[in-house]
Amino acid sequence: MPRFSIIVPSHGVAGRLSQALDSVLAQSFGDFELIPVCDGPDAPAADVAAGYTRRDSRVSPVHSPPSAGLGAARNAGMRAASGAYLLFLDGDDVLVPGALTALADRLGETGDVDVLYFEHERTPWWEGKPVTTAGPPPVTAPAPAFSPDEAPRLTGVPLPAWSAAYRRSFVTGHGLAFPDGHRTDVGWGGLVTVAAERIAVLRRVVVRHLLRRQGSRLELAGEHQLDLLDQTERVLVRAAEEGLPAQRFAPLFEQLFDAVLASAAHPGRLPARRRRAFFRRARRLYRCHRPAGFRVPGGRCGARHRLLAAGAYTAFRALCAADRLRVPGGRLPRAGGRLTRLAYRWHLHRPLDPNLVVYCAYWGRGYACSPAALHAKARELAPHLRAVFLVEPGQEHTLPEGVDHALIGSRRYWKVLARATYLVNNANFADAVVKRPGSVHLQTQHGTPLKTMGCDQSTYPVVAARSGSFAKLLRRVDRWDYNLSSNRHSTEMWERAFPGAYEPLEYGYPRNDVYCTARAEDVARVRRRLGVPEGSTAVLYAPTHRDHHTGFEPGLDLEAFCAAAGEDVVVLLRAHYFYDRGGRNGGGRIIDVTAHRSSEDVCLAADALITDYSSIMFDYANLDRPIVIYADDWEVYRETRGVCFDLMQAPPGPVARTPEELARLFRDGSYAGPGAARLRARFRERFCQFDDGRAAERVVRRVFLGEPPEQLPPVIPLAERIPAPAAILVRS
Hints:
It is built from 27 helices and 23 strands. Strands 1, 2, 3, 4, 5, 6, 7, 8, 9 and 10 form a 10-stranded mixed beta sheet that branches. Strands 13-12-11-14-15-16-17 form a 7-stranded parallel beta sheet, with helices on both faces. Helix 13 links the parallel strand 11 (about 355-360) and strand 12. Helix 7 runs parallel beside helix 9, helix 12 runs parallel beside helix 14 (about 410-420) and helix 20 packs parallel to helix 24.
C-alpha cells in the first residue's frame, strides 16, 4: 500500500496538467500513486496522462465526465485510491519540491491522524513570485497531534480540499465523499471537521496554487452559487446529528455563514433575480441552526450577521454598497473620430442582428484563411445568415463576387461590429471593439504553434519588445467565446498562451479542409495559375519571420539550390505575410508566390516543402507530401523566439543544416524516401488529428446553427483520409 494517493482532476487544464504531474513525479519521496482524473478517454488531458502512464507505473488515470463536476472527479479518484493518505491537487497547481518528504516526516512525528492540514502559496497566473501564503489558523495545542476540541476554530470550511492530507481509512470509515453540486470544498471541509477525532498541522508550504487569470470558477456568476446554501445546510444538519459540542459548533457555524455572507454581498456572483431569494433562504438556515448563546463577531462582519438574522435585506445591500470601493465606469474605447465614436456608441444600444456575421482575416488583408472557408460553408449550410467581410482599403479586389464588405475604420465598419451577433477572426479585432452580451466571438487561429505565442512570449525580450501590451492582448482574449484547434498540442498551447474563459473547439482548421477535398484537376489548375512549368517538381520554400531580423532575408541562395537539386526543380518562394508588399522580383526557376492570397493554393501546387520553423509545415503535413526542415540557425531561433517543443527531435522529415546537405537530399531523392516517410507519419499522427476535410461544417453547425456536439460529423481517422494528389503522382 503506497503512503500517498495523489488525485489530480484535470477538466479544463490540459495545457498545464503536465506541470502538475511533473511536480509529483519529481518528488524525492517516491512512495505514492498518482491518479489523474480525465474527462474521458478521448479528452485532451487523457492524452497527456496516457504518456505519463507509459513512462511510470505509479500513474493510473481514471475517468469522470465533466458534467458530473469537480466533486465527482475527486470521488472517482478516491474510489481508485489504495494509499494510506489522500492528497488532492488541482490540475494546474504543483507540489513544491520536498513536499511529500515533509508530509511523511510530519506524519512520522504525529502518528496516524485523521487530517493533516498544511500551508499553501498563491501564485499569479503568469507564474510570478508567490503573493500570499495561507493555511490553517494558529494552534496552541501542546502535542504534535491533538483533538479538534483543542483547536475549535480549525475547521476545514475556509480551506481548499488540497490544503490537507486525509487518512483514507478515516474517509471510507465515515462514508465521506465530496457532495454534489458546486462549492464542494465547503461541504467537504465541514463534513471532515464534524467527523475528525485527531488532527495535526504542518507549518510548511506543500502546494503552490496558480491563481487563474480569469478568476476562480467558484466566483463566476450563476445559479450554481445557490449550491453554497445546500452545502451549508448539509454540514449543519450533520453536525447536529452527530451532537457536535457547542465549543466546536459555534466556530463551524460562524465560518459557514462568513462564506454565505461573502457571496450574498458580492453583486456579481448571483443573478439579480435570485439575490433576494438567496438572502431569505440564508436567513432561514441561520435562524434554524444558530447555536444557543452564539455571539456574533465584531465589526462590519458582525453587522452583516445581525442584518441576516433580522432579514433586513435592503439594509444589508446598503451596507455592502458602502463597503465596496467604487470604481468609476470606464470610458468607451476610442473608436476613431468623435462622430465615429458617437455613432458606435449609438449602435451599441441597438439590438443585435441575429443573422449578421462579421468576418476578418489577417487584420483585413482580404478574403483568406479559415474565415473565408467558414463563410463559404455558411452560405451552403446557413443561407439565412448575412455576412460582411472586413478589409483594408485597397483589398476589395480579393473578395469573390457577391461578398459584402466594409472598409476597416469606416462608419459602416463600426456599425456592423456593434450589431453583429457573430464575429469571426483569425487574429483579433481592434481594441476598441466592445464584447456585447449575446454576441459570439470565434477565434479561428491561423496555424499550429511551434514558436511561443501570446503570454508565453513574455520571457523572451526580443519578441516581447515587439509584442505590445500583454494586458491589451488579454483584454482581446476575454472577448473570445470559442477558440479553434487542429490538434491536442494546439489546445494545450493556446490554454497557456491565451488564458481565458473561452471554450476550445477541437474541430480542425476550416482552411485545411481543401487538403482532403481537392482533386487532381484542382491541383493542375492552381499550378497553371502560379506559372509552374509542366513536368517540373515544384518545391515550396516558406521561411518564417525572425524577430531578431529587421526585414526579409531568404536565408538560402535559391538559384544555387535549383542548380544543385536537379534540372526539373522549380522553387515557389513564399515569404512570411509580414513581408507581403505586392510581389517581388523573381526569375528563371524562382516563382515568388508571397503575394498570392491563398496559402492553401500554394501548398496544393507544391510537390514538396522546405521550411525552417514556419507553422505552414503543420498544414502541409495534411497532404502527406515530403517536407524538409532547413535549420541553419535553430539554436539562435530557439533562444531568441522560444519554442513549444524540440523540432529537431520530432521533425516532419529530414533536417538539413547547410545548403549542401539540402541540395543533396533532393539530388539523391532521400527527401522523399522511406526514412522521410516514417518521420512524416509520426508527425502527422501528432499534428493532423482533426483536419479531415469537415472542420468548416462542424464549426458552422455548432457555432452558427447551435447543434449539440454529439450531433456533429465525427473526425475521420487519419488512416482513412485521402489527401489531395500531388502533381508528380498525377503525371505518373
